[in-house]
Amino acid sequence: MTEKNELSLSFVVCLLLGFPNPCLGTGKECCSSILLDSDLAVHKIQGDKLGFYSQLGYYGARPAYRQQGGEFFIFYYEEEQHWIDSRYFYGASLFSKLVNEMDGYCLDDHNNWSFYNGSDLMYSEVLTSNCSKIEDVCCKELRISSSNSEVIIDDQSYYNNQSKDSLGDYKAIGIINGRYVYQKDNLDSFFEYGAKHWTVSSGVGQNTGHIIHHGGSVCPEHIGKEWQISYTNADGDWEWKDDPFLKIT
Question: What is the pLDDT of residues 105-115, one digit of tens each?
């Protein structure tokens, strides 16, 4: 029996058993774990939809994916013959912000992604999906440090106590929003991604803290500049200021 006949026979058997979707991919295996990533500019606009995804069944006769520890889905939209994201469920296309304009069986067959920039869909050659696992791409242990933590200007430390306490060694404790979430030495200090920024705070799920990066990356150690730390101004109000020497290693 030829390979073609074997595939045809397998397809017929699957149909008879009532499993048509996986049968359509007979002979081709797609990735079970996908990394959707881009540069800082895209992260600042659509970063919450990026990160690591895991296959969760099939939709549109193709593998479909859900963000690891997050609320977004990626699936093939048969009506328009391309891949899209959704915050709600497979098949929901009304508020899609990411589009991979191709009809391949696997999500990573070809990168032809566009993202919604606030007014229009914009093509991006740096927005890509590829086969990757988070443990192979991002560090499970990190150190947050800055030479500015010991700097004193006009008898005042560049770092307040809260920001200084946020420095140190962190270990991954899980995955949230398609990225690792980290904790410092079993203390109430967490480093996580949410609401389009990386933050060090006193509790998982908080949107405020004492170290922040707006936009970020899938892996925090891949971020270069633009980190900020908290401080109190002359009126006693909390604000952010730049720390060009803060680094993640």
Answer: 999 999 999 99
Burial class of residue 14 (count of CB atoms within 10 Å of its CB; 0-12, 13-18, 19+): middle
Helical H runs in 87-169? 134-137, 161-165
Contact assessment for residue 10 and residue 20, using Cβ atoms and an 8 Å cutoff: no
Q: What is the pTM of this model?
A: 0.88
Residues 194-232 pLDDT 10s: 999 999 999 999 888 999 999 999 999 999 999 999 998
Reported as type and span, the H/E element at residue 114 is strand 113-116
Residue 40: HSE in the Cβ half-sphere, 13 Å Cα cutoff: 11
**Can you give the C-alpha Rg of the chain in angstroms?**
22
Of 67 and 5, more confident: 67
Largest CA distance in the chain: 84
**Distance (Å, whole) CA 225 – CA 87:** 30
Per-chain mean pLDDT for the chain: 90
- Measured distance CA(130)–CA(121) in Å, rounded: 21
Q: Is 141 helix (H, G, I), strand (E, B) or coil?
A: strand
What backbone phi and psi angles, to 5 degrees, belong to 165?
A: -70, -20
The kind and range of the H/E element at 246 are strand 246-248
